[in-house]
Amino acid sequence: MPHPPLKLDAEGVNAVLKAAFPDAPPDARALVVEAEPGRVRVRRAYGPGLLRPGGIISGPTLMAIADTGAYALVLAHVGDQKMAVTSSLVMNFLRGAAVGDIWADAHLLRLGRRNAVCDVRLWTESEDRLAAQATVTYSLP
Fold first, then answer.
1. DSSP class of 54
2. Dihedral angle computed from the Cα positions of residues 27, 12, 79 and 17, in that order, rounded to the nearest 10 degrees
3. 26, 118, 133, 138: least buried by Cβ within 10 Å?
4. Residue 28 DSSP label
């Protein structure tokens, strides 16, 4: 099924995210590294503050990256709509996320007038060894 064209490229989405969250420290931001119709790839640089006891990336960190990936995907397709909000986030933790940069691929499952549904897959070691998967729905203004 064809996806709608992008309204913002990776650089444009990053600019909107930076403007929407100006107080976020630069090292705490996830960056969109690729954007194409129906998909974005996001990277969050590793930092020791992301770990939970046991030496793996924490669940709240993974949920935040999944939400950021979905938000970036929505922005890429609908443009500068800062008031798009998460209405549902269902997270499946598949294995411990090893220490390292966190990667997320967000795929557009449905883009309607009132909501967008995204599939987000996260990993640190390898794209073939997913740490988590999320289904995220955004309500559109």
1. T
2. 10
3. 26
4. G
Within-domain flag for 130: yes
CATH of residue 115's domain is 3.10.129.10
Residue type, 108: L
Assign residue 92 a region: left if phi > 0, alpha if psi is -120 to 50, beta otherwise? beta
Burial class (CB in 10 A: 0-12, 13-18, 19+), 11: exposed
For residue 43, give the nearest of 102, 98, 100, 3 by alpha carbon.
102
